[in-house]
Design brief:
- The protein is an alpha/beta fold and 316 residues long.
- The chain contains nine helices and eleven strands.
- The strands form three sheets. The chain has a seven-stranded parallel β-sheet, sandwiched between helices.
- 48% of the residues are buried.
- The model is unreliable at 1-12 (pLDDT under 50).
- InterPro entries: NAD(P)-bd_dom, NAD(P)-bd_dom_sf, NAD(P)-dependent_oxidoreduct.
- Residues 26-196 form the NAD(P)-binding domain.
- Residues 1-20, 132-155 are annotated as: Disordered.
- Pfam families: NAD_binding_10 (PF13460).
Length: 316
């Protein structure tokens, strides 16, 4: 897949209703749950798709739908009458076959169902890990090279999921590409799971201090996704001003600059263990989010606040 938008399939998107229906898959996850909250704040009616009953956010305006989104019949039922669909599910940490089945094969099932149902837009949570960030590479924008097939299970299957969605015509598609997602939660990789590894495993305390640590806070990410999904970010014929109507538009969502030293010192300091600094080549560029900023997004959580949240959580 190239990272340039497809040619528009229509002259523009449908005007969003005052209280749009938005479907969110993975609504009980770190990102999905925050997206549901942000959508409710914007007056949307949310259909929260989960696999286990009673796990969707307990919020007024959220309707839980229990089922497997890769099932065509369930997907068709879930998206009927919706204005937008937000897909957040990818089994990170599973073997490649499982990631391929759920991401590359399963997510397009929802996209095709949405297109058939006349849904206006699909917002997919991708990742900045699809970009080649080898040592010596500079800053990364939406036109930058993607990873090769040997980059690892997660980057490759996310890359291939993006490509599968780019090939699914019939609605406006937005590929949101965040880097490391910071934010409190039991399933949070960077606030909970990675620190647990640093606490328990000496090898996890090794890091390259000057390596770039591209990041975004989950609340800022959710706000951007909700604005796009509710139509607050209008479709356009130019990706510089909004999602290309009828096309597939990637958009990076990343906060200000940071290094691995910043993150690692916050974690090890809160845990009371010593970091181990390695000297080896590393990527030192930035994930550029100029497109997201042009669409009206401004992150509110700065690095100091994000790292302080990690420290408080770990010390607590």
């Amino acid at each position: 897949m190239t990272s340039t938008p497809d040619a528009p399939q229509s002259s523009g998107s449908t005007q969003a209703p005052d209280s749009p229906v938005v479907v969110v898959t993975g609504a009980n996850g770190l990102v999905g749950a925050r997206v549901c909250e942000a959508l409710v704040e914007r007056g949307a009616q949310v259909r929260a798709v989960v696999r286990r009953a009673g796990t969707a956010p307990d919020l007024a305006g959220v309707e839980e739908r229990v089922g497997d989104f890769p099932d065509p019949a369930f997907a068709a039922s879930a998206v009927e009458g919706a204005f937008a669909v937000v897909t957040t599910v990818h089994p990170m940490g599973s073997d490649r076959a499982t990631q391929h089945e759920i991401g590359v094969e399963g997510t397009p099932v929802v996209a095709r169902a949405a297109a058939s149902a006349g849904v206006d837009r699909l917002v997919h949570v991708s990742t900045a890990a699809v970009y080649d960030r080898s040592p010596g590479r500079g800053d990364v924008d939406e036109s930058s090279d993607l990873v090769d097939d040997d980059a690892g299970d997660y980057p490759v299957t996310k890359r291939d999921t993006d490509a599968a969605l780019a090939a699914t015509d019939g609605l406006t598609r937005v590929l949101v590409r965040p880097p490391a997602i910071l934010g409190e939660g039991d399933s949070s990789v960077w606030n909970t799971l990675r620190p647990a590894a640093v606490r328990d495993d000496e090898q996890a305390r090794h890091a390259v201090p000057d390596q770039s640590f591209a990041w975004v806070h989950v609340d800022d990410l959710a706000a951007f996704i909700a604005d796009v999904a509710t139509g607050r970010v209008a479709a356009s014929d130019d990706a510089a001003t909004g999602p290309v109507a009828g096309g597939c538009t990637p958009v990076n969502v990343a906060a200000g600059p940071a290094t691995v030293r910043d993150y690692h010192q916050a974690v090890t300091g809160a845990l009371g263990v010593e970091p181990v600094w390695d000297d080896e080549p590393a990527w030192t560029g930035r994930i550029l989010a100029d497109r997201a900023h042009a669409w009206g997004w401004t992150p509110e959580v700065d690095l100091h606040a994000a790292l302080a949240e990690i420290e408080v959580g770990l010390r607590g």
